[in-house]
Amino acid sequence: MIPVDEAFARIMAQKIELPVAEVSLEEAVGKILREPIYADRDFPPYHRVTMDGIAIRYESYLAGEDTFRVEGMQLAGAPAQTLTHKDECLEVMTGAILPKNTDTVIRYEDVSIIERRGKRYAHILAAPKMRLQNVHQQGSDRKATDLLIPEGTLLSPAEIAVAATVGKASLKVTQAPRVAIISTGDELVKVTQTPLPHQIRKSNSYMLQAAMREQNVLADVFHLIDDKSLLLDELQQKFKKYQVLVLSGGVSKGKADFIPEVLQELGVEQVFHEVAQRPGKPFWFGKQAAGPVVFALPGNPVSTFVCYYKYIRLWLRAILGAAPAWNLQAHLTTEITFNPKLTYFLPVKVFISATGWRAQPVPIGGSGDFAGLLAADGFLELPPDQIKFSPGDTFPFIGFRS
Ligand code: AMP
Ligand code: MG
C-alpha cells in the first residue's frame, strides 16, 4: 500500500505521446491547441467607430463650429468615405471604418439632428472631449504578427473567437487517446434491462464516460463478466486497440476478483496496488511495455468516482498537454474525526463566503452510496496523519461540478 501522493506521482510519471489532429473550429472548444496563433492583421484592423453618431474633424470644432451639415452616411461594412468639406460631417454607425478626413465621433445622444430645406444638420449639444473620441484605434489592442494564443492553451470560447477573427477555420489540437472503459462483474446488467433481485444496472461505466466526455475524451464502453479465461482473452484484444484502459471492479480480495492477476499474466507491469485512501483503497495501476496504461479501479461507485477525479482526470489533462488544473482549497465547516491512517476523501458541498470557499460535509453511507453524491459538489482531501479536522482549517478540494 502506498500513500496518495506517491500514487499520484507514479501515475503522473506515465507519459504517452499523443499525435496532433486538425479539427474544425466548431469542434475545437475544450481541446488543447498544438500550434501558436498569431494576429494576421492589427486588432482592430481599422479605426473602428464605437458609437452611432457623427464623425467630424476635431479641429473644426475647436475653431468654433457647432453645427455641421451632414454630407452622407458611413455604414459598417462599407469602404471608407471621405469628408469633402472640413466643416461638415458624416453620419457614422458602430463598426464602421472612420471616414477619411475625420478624427472624432460624437454620439447621437450628444447632437440634435435638424432637417432644413432638404438638408440635414447636426448641432452639437455636448462638447467632444478629445480627438479620436469614440474611436477604437487601429492596432490599439494587438499588432499584426503578435502572438495571440500560445501552443498548449486549453481552448475556451474566448480562444475560439480570436482564432475565427484571424481566419483559422481549423485548428491543430492534441488528438485524444483511445480509451476503453470496462466494467466487470457478474451482477451487472444493462441500463435498459430489468434487473433480477440479485442484479444491479451498471452505472460506473456511464459515470466514467460522462466524466471523460467533459474533457473531450470520447471513450468506448464494455462490460465483462468475472470469468478469468474470458477476461484474459477479451482484455488482450483491447490491448491492441486502446492506449488507455479504465476498468472498474474486480481488484479487491474477493474470490471473483481476477483483474490484478489477469493483467499481470497479460504482461501489464504493476506500478502499484492499494493506496492508503478511503474510499478507493484497492486501486490497481499498471503499464504494459508496448501497450496501454491500465487504471483498474475498485467497483464501488464512490471509489470509482474518487479515483477518477483525484487521478485520472488530472493525468488525462497532462497527457493532452494542458496546464495543471487550479489547486482549490476550501475551509471545513464542521469538525470531522477520522481514525484510520488513510487519506480521507470527504464528500462536501461548497459555498463561497467572504473568507473563501467553505466545504460542508455531506452525509454519505459509505463507498456504495452514490446517491449520496447528488448532494455533493466534490471531495475534501483530508490527510492521513491527522485524526481530528477542525472547522475553519483548509484542505484541497476536488470538484466534479463545473
Ligand atoms: P468490486 O470492486 O467488483 O468488488 O465491486 C464492489 C461493489 O461495486 C459491488 O457491490 C459491485 O456490485 C459494485 N459495482 C462494481 N462495478 C459496478 C458498476 N460498473 N456499476 C455499479 N456498481 C458496480
Ligand atoms: Mg466485482
UniProtKB/TrEMBL annotation:
GO terms for biological process: Mo-molybdopterin cofactor biosynthetic process. Its cofactor is Mg(2+). Keywords: Magnesium, Metal-binding, Molybdenum, Molybdenum cofactor biosynthesis, Transferase. It catalyses: adenylyl-molybdopterin + molybdate = Mo-molybdopterin + AMP + H(+). It comes from Adhaeribacter swui. GO terms for cellular component: cytosol. Belongs to the MoeA family. InterPro entries: MoaB/Mog-like_dom_sf, MoaB/Mog_dom, MoCF_biosynth_CS, MoeA-like, MoeA_C_domain_IV, MoeA_C_domain_IV_sf, MoeA_linker/N, MoeA_linker/N_sf. Catalyzes the insertion of molybdate into adenylated molybdopterin with the concomitant release of AMP. The lineage of its organism: Bacteria, Pseudomonadati, Bacteroidota, Cytophagia, Cytophagales. This is Molybdopterin molybdenumtransferase. Pathway: Cofactor biosynthesis; molybdopterin biosynthesis. The keyword Metal-binding applies. One of its GO terms (molecular function) is metal ion binding. The keyword Ribosomal protein does not apply. Residues 180-318 form the MoaB/Mog domain. Gene3D superfamilies: MoaB/Mog-like domain, MoeA, C-terminal, domain IV, Molybdopterin biosynthesis moea protein, domain 2, Molybdopterin biosynthesis moea protein, domain 3. Its EC number is 2.10.1.1. Pfam families: MoCF_biosynth, MoeA_C, MoeA_N. SMART domains: MoCF_biosynth (SM00852).
